[in-house]
Design brief:
Order of helices and strands: EEEHEHEHEHEHEHEHHEHH
Strand order of the largest sheet: 3-4-5-6-7-8-9-10
Oligomer: single chain
Helix content: 25-40%
Shape: globular
Distance between the termini: 35 Å
CATH architecture: Alpha-Beta Barrel
Number of strands: 10
CATH class: Alpha Beta
Structural class: alpha/beta
């Protein structure tokens, strides 16, 4: 698996990130261990989790399940030195309110460290842009944890570009660590203007320009739109419906046919090789889906095919 530097840090991470959302929630312990083993065997090293994963899945999950499973796997495989761990704080889960106050950041970081049985988290995200807490308080708390060795770097998720820039200026004014990456809803299809996703924030043209200008890394969550590209029985989400998506799906089909690849593989490839490139999160729930994702690493599209994909529009 190819490796790239995360933003302007010294972290070398896989160009496919393993999303650990469903561990011990939708996936059993055995299935979760197998997926982690498969990912490591394929050369991957970038694990993405969060303190609140995945409390909403069923009546038995209350948050912390994913981190707990990762901790069990790290111990069983003695693999801590082989992986880069990313976790998050900000969204609520049972017993924990929304927010990124200094107290909450510290308390939740300590819980995450304990669940995973590690002494530091390589990348720690503000999972949401908490506008009820002063930005200085949030960034100062993150910086304190870096100085204490509990986290290595910080990232943002579900932030607008202007808030990212304000955070960068705040960090620079105080000599604090800066957000090195942003994780956003991002896929090949583009949401219609004016549509939103509630607490989730989709990458838009402003954010893509910001990523290019600053050199921070972009991570793409929900890159496959919940199976929309390959399951023809699924209706495209309302936020994406329209002539623009129709035009892009037509080109996606053409390129996939020419390359002998699946729609999903072309989407993964496009995300990893477009300008700016993105690191897709892969949260496969079957071995076949995971093999398909890995197959995108062997795909080769021409500059002309990439141009057609990128420029496709209504």
């Amino acid at each position: 698996m190819n490796m790239i530097k995360l933003g302007n840090t010294d972290l070398s991470v896989s160009t496919l990130c393993l999303g650990c959302l469903y561990f011990l929630a939708r996936e059993t312990r055995e299935d979760s261990f197998r997926r982690l083993d498969q990912y490591l065997d394929a050369g991957g090293n970038f694990l993405d989790t969060a303190n609140m994963y995945s409390h909403w899945i069923n009546e038995t999950t209350r948050g912390g399940e994913s981190e707990t499973l990762i901790g069990e796997w790290l111990k069983a495989r003695n693999s801590r030195s082989k992986v880069v761990i990313a976790s998050k704080v900000g969204f609520p889960y049972p017993g924990v309110p929304y927010g990124t106050s200094a107290r909450q950041i510290r308390e939740e970081c300590d819980k995450s460290l304990k669940r995973m049985g590690v002494d530091h988290i390589d990348l720690y995200y503000a999972h949401s842009d908490d506008r009820t807490t002063p930005m200085e308080e949030t960034l100062g708390a993150f910086n304190d944890l870096i100085l204490e060795g509990k986290i290595g770097h910080i990232g943002a998720s579900n932030f607008s570009s202007w808030r990212l820039e304000r955070a960068r200026q705040t960090s620079r004014a105080n000599g604090w660590a800066e957000y090195c990456c942003v994780q956003q809803r991002y896929s090949y299809l583009r949401p219609k203007a004016g549509w939103d996703f509630g607490e989730q924030v989709a990458a838009n043209d402003d954010l893509l320009e910001y990523v290019k200008d600053t050199g921070i890394s972009l991570l793409a969550y929900s890159p496959l739109l919940y199976g929309t590209y390959t399951d023809r029985t699924k209706t495209v989400m309302e936020q994406y419906q329209g002539p623009d998506s129709d035009a892009r799906l037509k080109v996606l089909d053409e390129v996939a046919s020419e390359a002998g690849a699946t729609r999903n593989q072309v989407v993964y490839y496009w995300l990893m090789n477009a300008e700016p490139n993105a690191i897709p999160l892969v949260a496969s729930t079957t071995d076949e889906q995971f093999a398909e994702a890995l197959g995108a690493m062997n795909l080769r599209l021409t500059d002309e095919q990439m141009k057609r994909l990128t420029e496709a529009k209504a």
